[in-house]
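Example 9 (inverse folding). The structure is encoded as follows.
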């Protein structure tokens, strides 16, 4: 469920094909910048009802999914 939610959010923010996103996809390869990251994290927090504190650099979709799953 979390992976699908992240993919949907990336799809909406970046206008990319869902099939191009895997757990190993890096945010750099998707062209995600820091502003995109802040907006997406805020959207995820709101839609999932959690607070995310990304202390280190999150490089892949899978890393973000793992952080979210730990909070749920």
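The amino acid assigned to each position is listed next.
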């Amino acid at each position: 469920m979390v992976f699908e939610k992240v993919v949907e959010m990336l799809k909406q923010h970046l206008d990319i094909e869902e099939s191009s996103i895997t757990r190993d996809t890096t945010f750099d390869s998707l062209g995600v910048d820091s502003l995109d990251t802040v907006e997406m994290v805020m959207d995820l927090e709101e839609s999932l009802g959690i607070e995310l504190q990304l202390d280190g650099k999150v490089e892949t979709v899978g890393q973000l999914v793992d952080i979210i799953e730990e909070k749920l």
